[in-house]
Design brief:
Number of strands: 12
Strand order of the largest sheet: 3-2-1-4-5-12-9-6-7-8
CATH class of the largest domain: Alpha Beta
CATH topology of the largest domain: Rossmann fold
CATH architecture of the largest domain: 3-Layer(aba) Sandwich
Shape: globular
Number of helices: 11
Radius of gyration: 20 Å
Structural class: alpha/beta
Largest sheet: 10 strands, mixed
Order of helices and strands: HEHEHEHEHHEEHHEHEHEEEHE
CATH superfamily of the largest domain: HUPs
Number of domains: 2
Distance between the termini: 26 Å
């Protein structure tokens, strides 16, 4: 619980369904660690979700070898699914939590649509940062799609680090836009329990229009929820806003960054904002995105 919260206040706003998108055995311990941390903190039900794309895993391959190659790929992915299941069960062992495993076979090459269906009825989604060196990343890694199209907050775990859940120090990237507002209040259960929340304004702005709210207003709103918050406006001093956010978060020892996900999808193609693209590519601290 936060510094000034009663038990009833702590649980009045919480996550009750956590979906962990699992797609690779080596990532499963870190993802389950984050998911279990969230579920334990909020007494939530955790769903480990693996969607297996059964068909059309590759572009057409000429006969006579095409069928054999495709079959080998499917068998490889099925074996990996079994390893993911074993890692899920290992993480679940001894946990006094409500947890379930869901393994679904998709008839589509890209399982994204099925994962999104499950994500939209969750309170929060846990997913991995994409790995450009993984053979199946184009098919099975889609944190940006979850953030933009699920309508739910997505807790993205970097490939290079494990998550600290619940986070003790949180940095919020604030620019006063709709996506940032959505992110802040989607993350409120975590902000309320954190020891310290730093709201960082690092976006270059035009001169404020008449009647514009000062950046401190978001801090006041969070403080009314019992959040121990500090608002800091910092100039853009590095190569990008994304680099500034990461640097400021690391300086403050943040366990989590909360920020809006900027972009849109059209015909399965994603046009991401520059800051979002930078953060998804170069993240070293877990990030909770909302769109």
């Amino acid at each position: 619980m936060g510094r000034n919260q009663s038990a009833s206040e702590a649980f009045s706003m919480s996550y009750k369904t956590v979906v962990v998108h699992l797609n690779h055995a080596q990532r499963t311990p870190a993802l389950m660690g984050a998911g279990i941390g969230l579920a334990r903190q909020h007494d939530a039900h955790l769903i480990g979700l693996y969607v297996f794309p059964a068909y059309r895993l590759t572009p057409p391959i000429p006969l006579p070898f095409g069928a054999d190659i495709a079959s080998n790929i499917r068998n490889t992915m099925k074996e990996d699914m079994e390893r993911v299941r074993a890692a899920f069960e290992e993480a679940r062992a001894g946990q006094a939590l409500s947890m379930e495993w869901r393994s679904i076979t998709s008839q589509r090459r890209n399982p994204e649509a099925i994962v999104l269906e499950h994500a939209r009825v969750a309170d929060v989604i846990v997913a991995s940062q994409a790995d450009p060196d993984w053979t199946f990343t184009d098919i099975l890694d889609f944190p940006e799609a979850l953030a933009i199209d699920s309508g739910r907050p997505v807790y993205v775990v970097p490939n290079s680090a494990r998550a600290v859940v619940p986070p003790r120090t949180v940095c919020v990237a604030w620019n006063g836009k709709r996506e940032a507002a959505r992110a802040v209040f989607d993350a409120l259960p975590l902000l309320k329990s954190a020891d310290k929340v730093h709201v960082l304004t690092v976006v270059e702005r035009e001169p404020e229009s008449e009647g514009a709210l000062p950046d401190t207003e978001v801090g006041a709103a969070l403080a009314r929820h019992g959040v121990n918050v500090e608002v800091t406006s910092v100039p853009v001093s590095r190569s990008s806003v994304g680099a500034d956010i990461q640097a400021r978060a690391m300086e403050r020892g943040a366990d989590l960054i909360v920020m809006g996900c900027y972009g849109h999808s059209r015909l399965r193609e994603f046009a991401l904002g520059g800051v979002t693209r930078h953060m998804l590519k170069d993240m070293t601290i877990p990030i909770m995105f909302s769109h």
